[in-house]
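Now for a sample.
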Amino acid sequence: MIRRGPRPVNIRLRRLLVMLPWLMERQTVSTQEMADHFGMSVADLVADLTLASMCGVSQDPRDLIDLWVDDDEVHFGIPKYFERPLRLTVSEAFSLIASATAAQQLPGMDQSGSLSKAIAKVSRAIDLNLDDSFVVELETPESVEGLSAAIRNSVIIEFDYWSVATGQSAKRRVAPLEVFLDQDHWYLRAHDLTAQAERTFRLDRLEQLVTTTETHSFVATPRPEWFAHSDEQRKVLLQVDPAWLWVLEQYPDVSIGAVPGGQVVQRADWVTVEVVANTERWMQRLLVRLGAHAVVVDPIDWQQLGSETAQMILRRYGRING
């Protein structure tokens, strides 16, 4: 029997941020109905709600979320600290609106529910136009400043780079062209002097950075989209065991919880994920890593790709050791 590991905290938190407003509107609902609505098992639902019931503004039991499960029903009451009006400063109200607006984008969130009404009400109170964009400042890695200077001065840099494919670090010598942020990761786009081709490196896998005194004449062109030069680029819909979502963290263009219209999923306790595959070989490697913890929903002609790849590997392994 394959033992499932713990579900990632970020996935549990995302679901709770969607589930609690939904539950607040209904007050009481059966565990099975709620589990079916959010595509999870009753056991996982109860575990997450139990965790939420221990949260509050203090350790005083009177300040905890009024939430409990009894006789296969979930009960939710308005916490006591909501009985009196909150007094927020403008900065506190703005922070609350920014957080609530981000939560509103989570998969499964009711866009016209109580959270949307609350956001609009608080926004009017501080005279904030919701049509304006929010600017969020993210923490910048220390290496960005040095890389930016190397780019401005057109100098060659050297570093050790850890490869996901080999699991080892190798020395790289490159002409840096651009450093940029994409979703949750920082990247360096550069011309690899050994491979004589442009490459993109993740900054958190880059070590022992050395700036040389050698200059280069390579010029940065507009950054292409991920996999833009691949003739085999395809969007693939997967269902993945939540405990194995960590495998997908290193890849770009991964959408968790996305279910394109018309698609039917088979595993209610697994998470639906859409990934962009640049080649069939790339997809084979990903499916081998995920093993029995993922299935392809779409495209149909790749639904057996994982098992076919595993059988091919076993045949080759058998010939080598036969």
